[in-house]
Amino acid sequence: MVHGYCDDGDVDKARFLFDCMPEKNLLSWNAMIRGDCQNRRPHDALKLFCEMRGNVDVEMNEVTVVSVLPAIADLSALDLGGWIHEFVARNQLDGSVQMR
């Protein structure tokens, strides 16, 4: 549902649902980060990404990285871009992931 609301441009409704989730899984984190980026909310996407980094219950994957890259680029967040680069190299993530 988070993904659907974001695709329709209703990011506030998506965020409300996301925030109400008692347990957030990787799919919900990725959908919300991607939705923030798609709807021109790079600050929100980066804030959520940083929150996800601190969450021990969820491990980032290739989709997470691809989802947050537009926000990093929009805000010229070079320090976070460097961290992402190191994360990808350290975890040997698959570089073939594409988002539509």
TrEMBL record:
GO biological process: RNA modification
UniProt keyword list: Repeat
GO molecular function: RNA binding
Residue stretches of each PPR repeat: 25-55
PROSITE patterns per record: PPR
The keyword Repeat is annotated on this UniProt entry: yes
Keyword Repeat on entry: yes
Alphabetical list of Pfam families matching this protein: PPR_2
Gene3D superfamilies tied to this protein: Tetratricopeptide repeat domain
Protein's UniProt name: Pentatricopeptide repeat-containing protein
Organism of derivation: Trifolium pratense
